[in-house]
Write a structure and sequence with these properties.
single chain, 262 residues, 12 helices, 8 strands, 17% strand, globular
């Protein structure tokens, strides 16, 4: 079975893109899937910190691109069984510096990494610079784009521009993930409800991750988000949908039982 490629992107930083990439990857592992997670945010790599393995990565994707390490040597595996390929520091894809790598080298390194084992999913966490989302779209035709936005209306508008970019590069399946959904403010009509978000965006919604303090603390401490928490259940719902299963948008999320959210 071919590896399914998932490109996680956003129109700007700070909306929870890396958090979503890691959360969905971990949820897929919980479902028994073999997953490769690649950190391609060259400006602000943070997945190694979120996973608590910042001192474990001896090699990264640039080392694979330059032939200094094989994918097998560069890819780490955490205690949950998630495979991880780190991003380098001070490297510009397509740059002309001594340590930089070409776009062709990066594309080959990622292709080799995905092919190095029988992964069910390969998830790419991208930044907003260096044209990485477009490069991935051109490299992995048929990939799915998860576009992460915050609860703010301007963020959803930015997600539509990102979806248009992906579509221009041949990606047909773009899905919206709202990260940091505020149940209380939506219930007070201070922010848009989920139905309003669905109606106002042309990008189909695949999931909404509620604001959950345990998620923030888990990332800060480099530990897995607690099972059964609202965020963990939201990531699990997205993972189920990526696997072709039908689940309710807020299935298992405790906040829904207490508050009106639409």
């Amino acid at each position: 079975m071919a590896t399914r490629k998932i490109i996680v992107a956003s129109s700007k930083g700070g909306v929870g893109k890396s958090t979503v990439a890691l959360g969905v990857a971990g949820a897929l592992c919980t479902l028994g899937k073999k997953v490769l997670l690649c950190d391609l945010d060259f400006e602000n790599p943070c997945l190694d910190l979120y996973m608590g393995i910042e001192d474990a990565a001896l090699f990264n994707v640039a080392d694979v691109a330059k032939g200094r390490a094989t994918p097998e040597k560069a890819i780490l595996k955490n205690s949950a069984g998630l495979s991880f390929l780190a991003s380098p520091e001070g490297v510009v894809p397509g740059g002309t510096g001594e340590n930089d790598i070409s776009e062709a080298e990066l594309a080959k390194a990622l292709t080799d990494a995905v092919s190095s084992a029988e992964y069910d999913f390969a998830i790419f966490d991208t930044g907003t610079a260096h044209g990485i989302p477009a490069l991935l779209a051109d490299t992995f035709r048929g990939a799915t784009a998860l576009i992460v936005a915050s609860h703010q209306s301007s963020s959803s508008r930015g997600a539509e521009r990102t979806a248009a970019m992906f579509e221009a590069h041949g990606i047909r399946e773009c899905r919206l993930v709202v990260c940091g959904y505020e149940f209380i403010e939506a219930a007070r009509n201070e922010r848009r409800g989920i139905v309003d978000i669905i109606d106002s965006s042309r990008v189909p919604l695949i999931g909404a991750v509620p604001y959950d303090r345990t998620l923030m603390l888990s990332c800060e401490r480099g530990v897995k988000v607690p099972e059964g928490s609202d965020a963990a259940e939201a990531f699990l719902n997205i993972a189920h949908r990526l696997c072709g299963r039908t689940v309710r948008l807020f299935d298992g999320i405790n906040s829904v039982k207490r508050r009106k959210i639409i």
